[in-house]
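Risk register update: the risk of archive-format incompatibility is retired. Evidence:
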Amino acid sequence: MNLFRAFATVGGYTMLSRILGFARDILIAGVLGAGPVADAFFVAFKLPNFFRRLFAEGAFNAGFIPLFSDLLTNRGKDQARAFAEQALSILLLALLVFVTLAQIFMPSIMTVLAPGFVDDPRRFDLAVAFTQITFPYLLFISLVSLMGGVLNSLQRFAAVAATPILLNICLITAITLAAPHLASPGHALAWGVAVAGVVQLLWLSVACHRAGMGLRLPRPRLTPKVRELLTLMLPAALGAGVVQVNLVVDIILASLLPQGSVSFLFYADRLNQLPIGVVGVAVGTAILPLLSRLVAQNDQKSALAALNRAIELTMFLALPAMFAFLLVADELILTLFQRGQFSTGDARATAFALAAYAVGLPAYVLIKVLGPAFFARRDTRTPVLVGIGAMVVNVILNLILMQFLAHAGLALATAIAAWLNVAVLSWILYRRGNLIADSRLIQRLARAIGAAILMTLLLWWLKGMLAPQFAGGESQRILALIALVIAGLAGYGLAAVLLKAVKLREIKDLLARRR
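Archived output:
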């Protein structure tokens, strides 16, 4: 499997999904604003997605893909399909019970998750109604995760990577076409989420069938392999839960700071998540099935080489994003967000948070690459323990740095904790002989840093030249930002080729994917 080709596929579809996601958010903000209907829908949207992140994505794939890849490599397609079908039946049974209970007790659940709504009967009733509509999405998207794991293991990445696009299309369609015909735009969006789950499941069902891996639904049985899957999932789910709890702690601490701190962090993180999603998630998705197959074949040399190339690729793409965010954070936030009720002061505070987050940008994507090196060897416990340690450090740093840097201290604490996480994961992999930097990685990394520095010097000069435009009207700021982005991309690309951080032949091979 060509890692770069797989990354291009996943990264391209992820980028398209993020763009549609921004369009979706703009439409929702314009229609719902920030009233009671909006509050109720966002709670209803977050609840199934919380459980999806907790169980269906990272935890399930961390356990399922290595087991499925091992069976596919060593015992053949039929054995792998039988395991996937047993996992599907057990997962469906558990989800049906869980979703049914949640629907019955939704009013009680809402009093715990949104206690502020209890004194506002309209918001509370809307939140309960919307969540009862959206919650079945958890069932569909969990089955989608299983089928996605099957397709990724078969090196069929395109259909899985395109799946989030369907959610955004369904929500955009709901808010533009269905809203006038329902009780409120919130009802339309809630039904849009539920329909999206069905559409995504049908999409991947067809993709699995075309890949020769159509799944039937046998009687649920706790086979030895299913028990092993549940054993592997438990620590990964615990780790995901720690991350979610840590995010809640960050919000609580930000709420103790001056007004607007939570919003500053939210808007900064929206930009910060773009390279993480496109680079980190894409490479992490591509590397796990590849490493799982190589480990199953006991091909340690190729596994080491694949991990080196994954690190090389992520750093090559993450380094310029980090330098750019550090240098032009003010210009980015001023151009993208400063309008209406979002003042210049708000933009400056958000830019401060973005720069703090950017310090850890390479670390955020490396975590998504190093984790699969453990998961492929059926070790879901170590990354969780390291992650818990990093989260504890994060909370401690939060309490210290927020005293001096306010909301940006919370962002900087996240960045430092991420680097600590990477350092410990790398050290453990090195001690086990599963991560040994080859000469190409070291040379390419040094050259990529050099190219990023040259790009930064170019942006610094151009930023000064364009200062009057950034101080002007909105159209002038947009044109100036476009000029900065184009100059940065072209400058980094040219510097990378000249310094041989990347070779033209590799770019041609990446673009000519069908070859």
